[in-house]
Design brief:
- The structure is a single chain.
- By secondary structure, this protein is mainly beta.
- The protein has one domain.
- Helix content is 12%, strand content 58%.
- It contains one helix and four strands; from the N terminus they run E-E-H-E-E.
- It has a four-stranded antiparallel beta sheet with strand order 2-1-3-4, with helices on one face.
- A hairpin with a 2-residue loop joins strand 3 and strand 4.
- The longest helix is centred in the middle third of the chain and has 8 residues.
- It is globular, with a radius of gyration of 13 Å.
C-alpha cells in the first residue's frame, strides 16, 4: 500500500461539515477554495492505502459572527 496526499475542501452546511471536492494539487485546491463564500476549510489529508493517517486544517474561512 502506498502513501499519498490530497487537498480537500470542506463546507459547513446546517451545522455539519461535508467534503465537496479533493485535489492532488495545492494551487488548484487553493484557487477553488477562494471561490466559496460560505464557511469552508481547506484540509491537507495524508492516506496510507485507503486509510487516513493524517489531517491538517490549512485554512478556515467564512466563520459567522455570533452575538
Amino acid at each position: 500500500m502506498g502513501r499519498w496526499e490530497e487537498y480537500q475542501i470542506w463546507v459547513q452546511k446546517n451545522g455539519r461539515w461535508e467534503m465537496v471536492s479533493a485535489f492532488s494539487d495545492f494551487e488548484l485546491a487553493s484557487a477553488v477554495a477562494r471561490n466559496y463564500s460560505s464557511r469552508m476549510r481547506l484540509i491537507h489529508a495524508t492516506y496510507e492505502g485507503n486509510k487516513i493517517v493524517g489531517q491538517d486544517v490549512l485554512v478556515e474561512m467564512g466563520a459567522t459572527r455570533e452575538g
